[in-house]
Amino acid sequence: MQIEQLIIRETDSVLDAMHKLDETGHTILFIAPEGVLQAVVTDSDVRRHILKGGKLDAPVKEMANYSPKSLPVEKRSEARGFMRRANISAVPLLDRAGRIEDVEFAGELDVDVAPRAKLPVVIMAGGLGTRLYPYTKILPKPLIPVGELPIIEHIIHRFTDVGCDEFTLVVNYKKNMIKSYFSDLEKDYNVDYADEDKPLGTGGGLSLLRGRIRETFFLTNCDILIDANFADILDQHRREGNSVTMVCAEKHFTIPYGVVETDGTNAVTAMREKPRMDFFTNTGMYVVEPDVIDLIEPDTPTPFTDVIEAVRARGGRVGMYRVPEESWLDMGQLEELENMRRRLEQRSQ
User: Fold this and answer.
1) pLDDT tens digits along 218-271
2) Do 130 and 136 meet the contact criterion of CB atoms below 8 Å apart?
3) What residue segments make up the domains of the chain, in order of their start?
4) pLDDT for 101-130, tens place per residue?
5) Rounded-to-integer distance, Cα 313 and Cα 188, Å
6) 90 CB contacts (<8 Å, ≥6 apart)?
7) Rounded (5°) CA angle 206-212-215
8) C or N terminus of the chain, fewer CB within 10 Å?
9) Which residue, 259, 294, 287, 263, is CA-closest to 273?
10) What is d(CA 332, CA 325) in angstroms, rounded to the nearest whole number?
11) CA 93 to chain CA centroid, nearest Å
């Protein structure tokens, strides 16, 4: 079901609301001009209105709740508990502008409201995965399971949910296992490959795609998951005229010690007890313009950070899209692998 089917105007009648509730089979409707949540109308609101002697031709704004409960989309994993505590059967998930991005229903299917961001997707899948040894002694990092699926399928599903269906994997280590996996997989998207003969890094690997990608594309590492509005990322990228947009996560770190500052003569000039550091970190996901590939030296190991500097050196704009820390899942290290599995399991409940 599309979200538009659950939208009602505040000037529509109570009878219109009754018909729409009956047609959708849901118990809630949203007043959301331009997609921005303003109020909700539930079947309980309709019953109370009628019991009070309200007219069926009255506008729904007379019975709507203009203080609706909602959650930021980044807190999707908290929706089930939130609904139980609030004793409600549905909660809209909002983007930063207050637009309804998705709806969680207690005991029901989610509404398919994900905005479209159909672009080619390049996944860097050729690394040795040394931080995940000994798992990667047996499996390439993209095929390491997180729950019932390998990490790369979780990544691909994030993109297919917003309309992406063309994927290019830059492969090297145990590449035949990766190719074999996808050749046997029943799927509704296309997977192509770029073979590295030697490790080229995130930037150098892109040089293999010169002439193959001619439009804006998503680029991601194969060990991260991002919970964000991909259409909003793309919209910001285009609005700001970026050559590259980096998806960056907010990080907050408290130093667990008292920090002492000196002037170089052993005299203490300041003391700060357990100071907090706030910063942004690169998640490993980007939106990239195709001409960026032309800046990369062929067959030369190059980190993507060097590519970014090359973009800036020629006057191109590199932008940042911010996501909360909890919206970034990273399985690059063993201790994070179980954390990712646990968080994905919570989100599926």
Assistant:
1) 999 998 888 888 888 998 999 999 999 999 988 877 888 888 888 878 898 888
2) yes
3) 3-105, 121-348
4) 888 887 544 444 455 778 999 999 988 777
5) 40
6) 26, 27, 28, 83, 103, 104, 105, 106, 108
7) 90
8) C
9) 259
10) 16
11) 13
CA dihedral sign of residues 329, 99, 163, 235: negative
Altogether, the residues listed in the chain come to a count of 349
Strands (E), 21-83: 28-31, 39-42, 71-72
CA dist 304 and 302 (Å) reads 6
Identify the CATH number of the domain defined by range 3-105. Answer: 3.10.580.10
In whole angstroms, give the CA distance from residue 227 to residue 212.
28
18 burial level (CB within 10 Å; 0-12, 13-18, 19+): middle
Q: What CATH architecture is 121-348?
A: Alpha-Beta Complex (3.90)
Other residues' Cβ atoms within 10 Å of the Cβ of residue 246: 22
Q: Which two tokens stand for residue 255?
A: 């130093």
Tokens of residue 340, six digits: 């990712």
Contacts of 209 (CB under 8 A, 6+ apart): 122, 168, 170, 194, 293
